[in-house]
Amino acid sequence: MSGIPLDFLLSQVSSSALSKIIVGGLGPGNADLVSEAVLDLAKTHPTFLRTREHPCVDMFDVSDSFDHLYESERHVVDVYEAIVEQLVRESRERGTIGYLVPGSPLIAERTVELLRQRKDVNVEILPGVSFLDLAWERLGVDPIARRVTIVDGQRFETEAAGLSGPLLVAQCDNRFVLSDIKLSIDVEELPKVTVLQRLGLEDEAVFEVEWENLDREFEPDHLTSLWIPELPLTDVAGSIIDLHALVRRLRSECPWDKDQTHASLIPGLLEEANEVVQAIESTESGEGSFEDLVEELGDLLFHVMMQSAIGEEEETFDVADVARGIRNKMIRRHPHIFEREPGSPMPTKEELVQQWKMIKAAERAGIKPDRG
Predict the structure, then answer these.
(1) Who has the most CB within 10 Å: 149, 167, 248, 327?
(2) How far apart are CA 371 and CA 110, in angstroms?
(3) What total number of domains does the chain contain?
(4) Which residues contact 100 (CB under 8 A, 6 or more apart)?
(5) pLDDT digits (tens, 9 = 90+) for 202-225
(6) Is the pTM of this model over 0.90?
(7) Neighbouring C-beta atoms of residue 139, cutoff 10 Å
(8) Do the beta carbons of residue 354 and residue 339 sit within 8 Å?
(9) In a domain, 340, yes or no
(10) What's the 3-state SS for 303-349?
């Protein structure tokens, strides 16, 4: 024992005493693809399901799921964090527990990412078959040879920003996600899309849709993915990426920029907003030019990017959160654009004002997220 630091021994004892969570995957949906190790997990340890919305859940004698959290929490990210907290509490009380997730625990499973970041619990992963294996077979694609990028549909704006080439988009489980994806691409020649649904099940479907009909032509579910054989890089995306990179460099290298805080930027923000108003008024009166307006809007955009860069450094939010938040809000508040049935009449301006107020009231009351 001599020569071994006491704090190291204590840490080893503490580590060995940690509770344990064994995570297994339910596979892409076909019962034949569920491993024996995962089947045995529920027989030997108290086990929890992330959600019962999966074709294979009836193979397990498990009643505890986290579906109730999808109804009680406002945002999906809050659902995932709440699941992790409850799992950790259960493991402390019961010792080793099991946790079953759709698909593979290692593919697009945010709760497993969060669990593996915890220092107060041991996490063991039981590898399982992913929907990716079936997707590559159906598409006839070698993902290594094609250099395919895999992104999460619920974080498409962030993960696909600046990317080009072939993409497989997972977790496209509701129309809001599909709308976000559709609206994030603004190019003249829109990419082709192949929809993959319920791979390996009797009602499997693989079909193509036009980009503009991505959120209208079919009903998404929790076993829906998209194949985009060639994602174009838009001029808008490229310009925003360049500005984002510039702001990050200024925050890193410029003594004045790196010294700024959210609060210190307020006077300049107000000044730039006022100058935008003046530029609009001058343009409308014919005294100013659109070049002046573009310049002033650029100054205001720079402030938005600076505020977002500070949030990114502090790990509170980033520019993708800002863009995603306002996009989601505008989609929610314009159901007459994104949800109106073909052929139905457009509401009047007066009706739209009332609709806007009702939607705002519903938002304040809380929005129930869909299962991811």
Answers:
(1) 167
(2) 12
(3) 3
(4) 23, 24, 25, 26, 38, 41, 42, 47, 48, 49, 50, 57, 60, 62
(5) 899 999 999 989 998 999 988 899
(6) no
(7) 18
(8) no
(9) no
(10) HHHHHHHHHHHCCCCCHHHHHHHHHHHHHHCCHHHHCCCCCCCCCCH
